Amino acid sequence: MTAPRYPAKPRPGDKVAIVSPSSGLPGLFPAPFELGLHRLREDFGLVPVEYPATRTMHATPGQRAADLHAAFADPEIKAVIASIGGDDQITVLPHLDRELLRTHPKPFLGYSDNTNLLLLLRNLGIVGYHGGCAMVQFGRPGALHPMTADSLRAALFTSGPYELAPATASGDVERPWDAPRTFASEPAMEPAGGWSWHRADRVVEGPGWGGEVEVLSWLLMAGREILPPEDYAGNVLFLETSEELPGAETVHRILRSMGERGLLRQFPALLMGRAKSWSFEKPLTAPERARFRAEQRTAVLRALDRYAPETMAVFDVDLGHTDPQVVIPVGGRIRVDGPARRITVTY
């Protein structure tokens, strides 16, 4: 396939669409959503425009697709930002007018279940941005994290290389969105151990491909947006897991299936996001969280050792369900310099 192209970037004062391609959670939890809209206006100088299904729980796939069509087709809208993820975006894909999206390319920001749309756009030749949902990163309690804010500004407004850096502290434990006290202060953070490198003896540069592991498994099962394995030769794979906390064996089985399909060996480098290791359903203690992350790393290495033994890997990159979060370009260039221990993305 041809190399994806970067859509034109918005400028302060431009309108940006706010959509909910997965879930209408802004209707249930307005506090983080309104805070995210406020920061888009006041901190980023953008004009957020909501679409009809943005706050509608259980909107049909057709309604959510119609919002995307309207947002991409409107010449006044200069970027499209997801409110949040979910688990139902795969049902929207058959309703999308691919030619409309192809002929009206715009930067799209989102992660988690938005992996669906990001990979569809990549297959249409459009670079998208894995990260930056309105309710989560823009609506973070207390204040935007400086590292997240810097990456978001670079992805939204600039073009060119952007060097990532490991966080010195990260947050995993959340507070309820329906409690006003949640937004009175920033989330608690704990020391982060930096990146962990595996087979870091080379430099790899190529377009980025990947997303949330669970969503990729659904796409593989449904046979959607996954190209023949050889189409990914030389790409940089990036993966992350969600607040559903899939166990190490589940992650291994998904990667094993990717390996059996011939996918894993196509990627000479992998960026693995710092594993989300706490949820309201599974409130793990600090030692349990550390063990959860370590077990996931071991599971990923098992799959690589069997199916992609030459692949370089970097663990605990601050992408996906992490705080702070850096934005990863889907289809955009990623350079992984093992000897120098540096990662550079191109926004």
UniProtKB/TrEMBL annotation:
Superkingdom of origin: Bacteria
InterPro entries: Carboxypeptidase_A_C_sf (IPR027461), Class_I_gatase-like (IPR029062), LdcA_N (IPR027478), Peptidase_S66_N (IPR040449), Peptidase_S66C (IPR040921), S66_fam (IPR003507)
The keyword Isomerase belongs to this UniProt entry's keyword annotation: no
Matches recorded under Gene3D superfamilies: Class I glutamine amidotransferase-like, LD-carboxypeptidase A C-terminal domain-like
Domain LD-carboxypeptidase N-terminal, residue spans: 16-131
Keyword Hydrolase: yes
Residue ranges constituting the LD-carboxypeptidase C-terminal domain according to the UniProt record: 205-336
Pfam families tied to this protein: Peptidase_S66, Peptidase_S66C
UniProt KW keywords: Hydrolase
Classification via PANTHER family: LD-CARBOXYPEPTIDASE C-TERMINAL DOMAIN-CONTAINING PROTEIN, MURAMOYLTETRAPEPTIDE CARBOXYPEPTIDASE
Recorded family membership: Belongs to the peptidase S66 family.
Protein name per UniProt: LD-carboxypeptidase
Organism: Streptomyces luteireticuli
Lineage: Bacteria, Bacillati, Actinomycetota, Actinomycetes, Kitasatosporales
